[in-house]
Specification:
By secondary structure, this protein is α/β, with parallel strands linked by helices. 55% of the residues lie in helices and 11% in strands. Strands 5-4-6-7-8 form a 5-stranded mixed sheet, with helices on both faces. The protein has a 3-stranded antiparallel sheet with strand order 1-3-2, with helices on both faces. Strand 7 and strand 8 form a beta hairpin. Helix 9 runs antiparallel to helix 10 and helix 13 packs antiparallel against helix 14. The N and C termini lie far apart (55 Å). 42% of the residues are buried.
């Protein structure tokens, strides 16, 4: 029997009922007006769905689909023949159009995420309205460009174009950044002319520009810049050594670091600049920007007033545009934070947050941010298996989002998957020093639980954000264990300044934060030890 909410079907442990539902839905889609006359795309879609149901997702590669699914010759070369990529894009668009019209009330939705050949399945969609594509919140617009150097050889320029294309593809997966154009350009001398062209033709807010410097011994240096299109101000830049023995799309540190700067709302230089500029005159902020602007503003200071502004902005926008993905994802996170930090907003409960996240997944099933938001809500509700399922989907959709990678590692650690969780967190911490200080909370907890208090303190000293598990709290607990009572008491005083009801409600907040009574009791005992 179907539930009354939309949720993801995990094909790795699928029931007979769900498998039958998927097979029936496939036949319904294939006879629709969108696929009726598209024989090759029908075979393509049937092949990847049947392979998924057989547990053979790893075989869904371009070559396998072409040769086994579409009967191409054994010498098919995906590098020279783009037919699979082209068909995947057309299938993806047809599925979106089908569910916005003919399939609006179907019990199940099939989607094909960008950059993947593994279909996803979501149920239950009884009675939902067709998706409205106008009136959505908008993120800043980013143009991704590269400039070659006439003095460099063809190999270097081919590498530059490949790097640009790969990064544009990965950044396009981010909900909170809109890629408006991705084009290779000519010589570096054209930079200023192109900036004007990008502003006039595409109304981009920012440009992400790449250059490659050819070094001796076939080495290359990648130079990156983010520019404000109007002012030409450089708001972020960095350089990276490209490892030639590793395919570029596997060079996580480079892609992750650039993604963090250009597309991550929590820690990105682009978002910091964009938000501050708009907040210079709050009365002039367009309504379709407010959800993101106030969300970023809240994550900067974590205060009650900015929290309230963000909640109101999302609620107002969703009243007019209930299918707005950005507002749903942001409000789901506000609901989670309200639950953990006990802000006292009765109209932003976990129940509301769950529905917001489910709506976001329904409207945009290939959004890793939407699945991550839903996973966080399930974590707070104590639904571990469903949380793990959503986190897995989020990672499958995008593994270059540093903030979400950390968040998944955080939740995995506290759900008992400590080794995998710590590995993810350490991977994010290795990207660069440009990450929020509270990312050090997980290593702190790990060493504190191991009773390696000197190492735990080294991480506690790096945390300066006034969140629930703040630097002051981590340090007062550790100083108490090390026998430094005066330092512990001073840190506790600072913690209470940030969270006045800490001693009254701290134990309950710890339980909500960690999702584990055992862990909450362990750390709360550390607080109580300070005054013993």
């Amino acid at each position: 029997m179907l539930s009354n909410e939309n949720y993801t079907i995990d094909v790795s442990s699928i029931s007979e009922e769900d498998a039958l539902l998927i097979q029936n839905q496939l036949e319904r889609v294939l006879v629709s007006s969108y696929f009726k006359l598209a024989e090759q795309q029908k075979r393509f879609l049937r092949f990847i769905i049947e392979k998924s149901l057989e547990g053979q997702i790893k075989q869904l590669k371009q070559y396998t689909i072409a040769v086994e699914g579409l009967d191409f010759a054994d010498n098919f070369d995906p590098d020279t023949n783009p037919v699979i990529r082209i068909n995947a894009g057309r299938i993806r668009k047809k599925l979106e159009d089908y569910y916005a019209s003919e399939g609006a009330t179907d019990l199940l939705q099939i989607s094909l995420p960008k950059g993947s050949y593994s279909p996803l399945f979501y149920k239950n969609f009884t009675g939902r309205q067709p998706i409205v594509k106008e009136g959505y919140s908008l993120p800043p617009k980013l143009a991704v460009l590269c400039f070659s150097d006439k003095t460099q050889n063809d190999e270097s320029n081919r590498l530059l174009f490949h790097v640009t294309d790969t990064l544009a593809t990965e950044l396009s997966r981010f909900l909170f950044t809109k890629i408006v154009v991705s084009i290779p350009h000519g010589d570096k001398s054209e930079t200023r002319f192109v900036a004007s062209e990008i502003e006039d033709r595409f109304q981009a807010d920012y440009m992400l520009i790449f250059y490659i410097q050819q070094l001796p011994k076939n080495q290359h240096l990648l130079l990156c810049r983010v520019l404000d299109v109007k002012t030409k101000e450089i708001i972020w830049s960095d350089t990276y050594d490209i490892e030639h023995n590793i395919a570029f799309h596997k060079q996580y540190k480079i892609i992750g670091s650039i993604s963090a700067a250009a597309s991550d709302i929590q820690q990105g230089a682009l978002y910091q600049h964009w938000t501050r500029r708009l907040l210079e005159d709050e009365t002039a902020i367009p309504s379709h920007y407010k959800a993101l602007v106030y969300y970023r503003n809240y994550t900067d200071d974590l205060g009650y007033d900015t929290f309230k502004k963000g909640v109101v902005a999302c609620q107002n926008y969703l009243q007019k545009n209930p299918n707005d993905v950005i507002s749903n994802v942001v409000l789901a996170d506000f609901c989670r934070r309200n639950y953990i930090y006990d802000f006292g907003f009765s109209n932003v409960s976990l129940k509301i947050g769950k529905q917001c996240a489910l709506d976001a997944v329904r409207v945009k099933p290939d959004s890793h941010e939407a699945h991550y938001a839903l996973g966080q809500i399930f974590f707070c509700l104590g639904e571990k298996e469903r949380a793990l399922s959503e986190f897995k989907i989020a990672r499958d959709l995008c593994q270059y989002h540093a903030y979400i990678e950390f968040g998944i590692g955080f939740h995995l650690y506290f759900m008992g998957e400590k080794e995998e969780g710590l590995e993810l967190v350490n991977k994010v911490l290795s990207l660069s020093s440009n990450y929020p200080s509270w990312f050090n909370v997980i290593p702190f907890c790990h060493y504190y639980l191991l009773k390696e208090y000197d190492t735990a303190l080294s991480y506690a000293l790096k945390v300066d954000a006034p969140i629930l598990f703040s630097g002051a709290i981590t340090r007062c607990m550790t100083y108490a264990q090390l026998g430094e009572k005066e330092k512990a008491q001073e840190e506790l005083k600072d913690a209470v300044k940030n969270i006045p009801d800490l001693m009254e409600n701290g134990e309950k907040m710890f339980l909500r934060f960690f999702g584990s009574k055992e862990l909450a009791n362990t750390f709360w005992s550390g607080i109580l030890n300070v005054n013993k």
